[in-house]
Design a protein that fits this description.
With 154 residues, the protein is an all-alpha fold. 73% of the residues lie in helices and 0% in strands. The protein is built from five helices and no strands. Helix 2 runs antiparallel to helix 5. It is globular and about 50 Å long. The two termini are 14 Å apart.
Length: 154
Amino acid sequence: MRNSFGNDSEYLESRVLSATPAGLIEILYEKALEHLTKAQVQLHSGEILERGLSISRTQAIINELVNCLDRKQGGEIAQNLLRLYDYSNVRLTEAHRLGSEAILKEVAGILQNMLDGWREANRLTESSRIGEPFTADHVMVQPEASPALRSWTA
């Protein structure tokens, strides 16, 4: 995909550099879903190695999401997210081992629901805090947990 920045990696870099902490989480979810879509295509075309790489990138993103959780302030919600992330990682390993499109779709559905919920929570948070700066304190993100982009942007 071409854009005004020249290529996807430049566009992604621009988005990341200008994103709020909440925006970074949204980007992580989007990239995870992109890699899952690639894995499904690769499953159909018999590209086993490439499918494994796409699944591994998805798992790396999920691990980054785990690292971003603020388990102290997040309480039960953070614990539930952690359980969903762990479940998704286990299912992705099974999906690759079994070559299962159904499992890939299951995990994509989980991540899409989480992305939709994240977007809605941020929309509500932003609209309820008009006039206040939006900070990482308003979301369950550790301020020091910045995504390690190089491992999953390829």
